[in-house]
């Protein structure tokens, strides 16, 4: 689609109509586009605010960026990649994989890049969505929100941070024009991004202060390069790669036992974490600082073979006192210590349950998704549809996330649900669907007993899994194969429908 094909937004009559409009082209949006094409649905468009496909793997280019899920499991089931160089893939390889898949399945022509969605509203009279973007205006029978859960950086609210005169940037918006060599640098945060950034920049900076709010369990990563004979076997014997993928999947599902079913068994993993800590950190005081006070799995487990060693370097300090304020060239911690700094890296995570994109969708009742969440809490039906928002699907919505295995498994499960919904709507000659409020409420009520016994609820921590109401609205509290079974078919009985006008 070229810019000359882009309709004007001056008049409503100039809007281009599509059957399906997909917002975002990361793993979720790209996978949806491919599956629509495979199903013979070609009347769709993908609006993507970035210059290419890839989503979080296009945006997160910080030093050391990579995946903490094994490579063979971190790919679409319909597009295995025999060319992974390592057992855990670095960011450039994942980004290239997604670009290659987009080209292989010929979906680029359905994309409108550098195109941010600015608003979408449901028109009940016409039974369709009116969608505005920075480049075009659309109407759509169905909207798929595939903006992603790691799309909007979360910036800390720290006194004086706007007055800092050095370089400051979020890990997901890495400033590659800034060199950190020989500089005094501060990294705020010790989550998944930080454990990759800190070992990557520690050897080159003059001094590194790492600000830790809460210690988190760090587990060993069984990472290694794949040998040429292995890659040859993956390419010429695809069944071997499928077998390895299946074995990895089964092994990862075992974490459900330690986090959901029988959290006390997590003590075994904690023992592994303690031994790792003892072997890799010489300083007893530093060991005490990094020893978590919560049960393993309560916060997302981190995997790294280099993080503890980096913290133990002479030019690295781990600061566990909170930050009182940021000044023009320094950070002051709550104990009054002032530390000079030339650059600040914010490894402070993302808006997950409170994604700013939720302010852009206005449903049947005139409320946005955010406004509905403020009133009733962040709830969805099967993590995919929401009452008051007809003909709309969310990918990786409420309580569909995983913190122990590949999210691609959930994404593909939800795409199956979407495809079956579209087929059902066509076969039944229906114009619109909307999940019943009672069905949504009952579904979420049934989740709570499962959530109550998990380590996320009883592990003694607070985490990004929790929304503003204190509810764990991020994670699925069971085996992932049970989620897939649940969304295998579109359950029309849970929805109010409107027939298509004849």
Rg over CA atoms, rounded to whole Å, is 23 Å
Which CATH class of the largest domain applies here?
Alpha Beta
Q: Please report which band the strand proportion falls in: under 5%, 5-15%, 15-25%, 25-35%, 35-45% or over 45%.
A: 15-25%
Number of domains: 2
Which percent bin holds the helix content? 25-40%
Distance from first to last alpha carbon: 32 Å
Number of helical segments with 4 or more residues: 15
In the CATH hierarchy, the third-tier topology of the largest domain is known as: FAD/NAD(P)-binding domain
Query: What about the largest sheet?
Result: 8 strands, mixed
Runs in which pLDDT lies below 50 for 5 or more consecutive residues are 1-10
Class by helix and strand content? Answer: alpha/beta
- The count of β-strands is 20
Average pLDDT metric: 93
Question: What is the correct CATH architecture of the largest domain?
Answer: 3-Layer(bba) Sandwich
**Which superfamily, in CATH terms, is the homologous superfamily of the largest domain?**
FAD/NAD(P)-binding domain
Outline of the structure:
Pfam families: FMO-like (PF00743). The protein has 502 residues and is α/β, with parallel strands linked by helices. The chain has helices at residues 27-38, 56-59, 91-104, 194-201, 228-236, 238-253, 255-261, 266-280, 284-290, 307-311, 369-376, 407-427, 437-452, 455-458, 480-486, and strands spanning 16-23, 44-47, 111-112, 117-123, 128-133, 137-145, 167-170, 184-188, 207-211, 218-219, 302-303, 316-319, 323-327, 330-333, 338-340, 343-346, 361-362, 392-394, 430-435, 495-499.
